[in-house]
UniProtKB/TrEMBL annotation:
Keywords noted in UniProt: ATP-binding, Isomerase, Lyase, Metal-binding, Multifunctional enzyme, NAD, NADP, Nucleotide-binding, Potassium
Name assigned to this protein: Bifunctional NAD(P)H-hydrate repair enzyme
Span of domain YjeF N-terminal: 9-216
Assembly and binders: Homotetramer.
Binding site for AMP: K420, G421, A422, Y423, S424, G449
Cofactor note: Binds 1 potassium ion per subunit.
CDD domains on file: YXKO-related
Family matches, as HAMAP family: NADHX_dehydratase (MF_01965), NADHX_epimerase (MF_01966)
Residues of the YjeF C-terminal domain: 226-505
Catalytic reaction annotation: (6S)-NADPHX + ADP = AMP + phosphate + NADPH + H(+); (6R)-NADPHX = (6S)-NADPHX; (6S)-NADHX + ADP = AMP + phosphate + NADH + H(+); (6R)-NADHX = (6S)-NADHX
Family: Belongs to the NnrD/CARKD family. In the N-terminal section; belongs to the NnrE/AIBP family.
Length: 505
């Protein structure tokens, strides 16, 4: 699903109005009806509901919603925040229509007009929408602050009043902090950015049948991965397949005290469909790996505690295939930053012809030896969390700047970068960014990143295109986390649970 900017959304409205065709006021009515359907599914008709409306089309939506909730006999109160002398046409139309059936619309001009909001009430926030052009001040600011102070449940129409859809807010901006945001047709970029979490809440997209062809043709570099889109990437297995059909992956993982990372990556790799898996660990991990993951072959490193890439002295040249013979290599989880491991990385990179997966301390070694970045095989997948990405680039002033850095980095080094976190962002060498839609805070626990490395290495080994592997792998990883959260709640989730909950269908 595309993420479009405000100007595009405005043109999308116009395009719908012209091509359907539909009158603007009827499009607003459709949006309001769809919102009300969502609302009545969640809140019973006895819910005392206060609707706060601005003077633009977001306020117009609010007034139409008020009339439709009145028809359904919800106990509503309506407040219009009168911050300016001018109202939009569709606001005025809905204002007239509401007043025909409801004679107690309140107007907020001064602070003492703001009502007390109680805990059992629901507030519908339709003060400002995507037309926000400056920070709130005066009576708008006071009303927003009062709503934020209130113990009520808050639902924002389209976007929280005061939040910019696709540009950074100032640090002192006053913005509604809703429990829910109910938006129309497409997500807004602001919804997937970490700093905005409290200004978005739990968000939902309602289909109001805007012009599909406009959306299909609209240029954008931002996407939000829907379940249907991720499933389309998944390959079916041929009945006559054999293990040779699904690649042979190699994981370079683990060091003394961090063999667990190796185990997690290995188990996740196997659970993601790879045909064969070999794991290279320092010798201290050999027995552990062979015991805990019997399905994997083990290639012991010559060093007891860290990876060096050198074969053990008693079996020179008998370590198995050359590194370049594997279908895909994943490197990083638990490897540490020993000088010998850096040498291994330096020797390995120039020999590689196929994309690899680079995570954790392998990324930190790249940050400290930046000349190595130019030696990454094109289309390799890098999976930094924000701190690792900062080490690879620099500090950012806000989330929008972070996205610019992400895109520039992926384009400059021709790699796929998975910036991990809520709504993990997959940046492609062509400059697109796909935000993931699955996952939950239960995944914020040690080892879940190692699981992701195993998954992505498995998909690369099976021949998936690297961008598709990243989008699909990140989606499946988050979905597994969502399954665990559903079954046992997010708080007790472990990385092993996530592996067990992986399902490819
Ligand atoms: N396709 C869709 O998604 C559909 C969208 N629809 C709905 O339309 C909404 C967008 O409507 P909208 O363009 O009228 O914008 P909205 O925010 O209501 O008001 C802008 C007005 O407020 C003013 N203003 C700006 N900032 C201000 C501030 N801080 N403090 C005070 N005033 C401020 C601004 O002034 P100006 O910048 O012109 O000086 C202008 O007069 C959208 O969010 C959705 O709810 C649906 O109805 C149909 C389908
Ligand atoms: N709040 C969250 N919502 C969704 N996913 C999350 C959240 N927190 C963490 N994750 C996911 O969990 C994984 C954590 O990876 P990482 O930070 O590398 O952990 P580790 O190094 O311990 O394995 C990433 O895939 C990330 O996207
Ligand atoms: K709003």
């Amino acid at each position: 699903m595309k993420i479009l900017n405000v100007d595009q959304i405005r043109s999308l409205d116009q395009s719908t109005i012209q091509h359907e065709p539909i009158a603007p006021i009827n499009l607003m009515e459709r949006a309001a009806l769809t919102f009300v359907d969502w609302f009545v599914d969640r809140f019973t008709p006895t819910t005392p509901t206060k609707i706060f409306c601005g003077l633009g089309d977001n306020g117009g939506d609010g007034l139409a919603i008020a009339r439709l909730l009145l028809e359904r006999e919800y106990p509503i109160e309506v407040y219009v925040v009168r911050y300016a002398p001018r109202e939009s046409d569709d606001f005025m139309h809905n204002h007239r229509r509401l007043k025909l059936v409801f004679d107690s619309v309140h107007y907020i001009e001064l602070t003492h007009d703001i009502p007390t909001i109680r805990h059992n009430e629901v507030v519908i926030d339709a003060i400002l929408g995507s037309g926000l052009s400056r920070p709130s001040e005066g009576i708008v600011e006071d009303t927003v602050k009062a709503i934020n102070r209130a113990p009520a449940t808050v639902v924002s129409v389209d976007i929280a009043s005061g939040l910019y859809p696709n540009q950074p807010n100032g640090s002192t901006d006053v913005i509604i902090e809703p429990d829910y945001t109910v938006t129309f047709q497409l997500p807004k970029l602001a919804f997937v950015l970490p700093k905005n979490g409290r200004y978005v809440g739990d968000w939902h997209i309602l289909d109001i049948q805007l012009h599909k062809r406009y959306i299909d043709l609209a240029p954008t570099s931002y996407y939000f991965t829907q379940p249907r889109e991720a499933r389309l990437l998944l390959r079916k297995r041929d009945r006559f397949s054999n293990k040779g059909s699904f690649g042979h992956a190699l994981l370079l993982v683990g060091s003394y005290g961090k063999i667990g990372a190796a185990i997690l990556a290995a188990r996740a790799c196997l659970r993601s469909g790879v045909g064969l898996l070999t794991v290279q660990v320092p010798q201290c991990g050999y027995t552990i790996l062979q015991t805990v993951v019997p399905e994997a072959m083990c290639r012991p490193d010559g060093n007891q505690n860290v990876l060096t890439g050198i074969a053990p002295a008693d079996q020179p040249g008998k370590q198995g295939p050359a590194l370049t013979d594997y279908s895909a290599i994943g490197i990083g989880p638990g490897i540490g930053k020993a000088p010998e491991t850096l040498v291994m990385l330096k020797n390995l990179l120039p020999t590689l012809k196929k994309p690899i997966v680079v995570d954790a301390d392998a990324l930190n070694l790249l940050s400290e030896n930046r000349e190595l970045l130019n030696q990454l095989p094109p289309n390799s997948i890098l999976t930094p969390h924000p701190k690792e990405f900062e080490r690879l680039t620099k500090k950012w002033a806000n989330d929008y700047q972070k996205l610019d850095l992400l895109r520039e980095f992926a384009q400059k080094y021709r790699v796929v970068v998975v910036l991990k976190g809520a709504y993990s962002a997959v940046a492609t060498p062509d400059g697109d960014i796909h935000f993931n839609s699955t996952g939950n805070p239960g995944l914020s626990t040690g080892g879940t990143g190692d699981v992701l490395t195993g998954i992505l290495t498995s998909l690369l080994a099976q021949g998936y295109d690297p961008v598709e592997a990243a989008v699909l792998g990140v989606f499946a990883h988050g979905l597994a986390g969502d399954r665990v959260a559903e079954q046992r709640g997010p708080i007790g989730m472990t990385a092993s649970d996530v592996i067990d909950a992986l399902r490819w269908e």
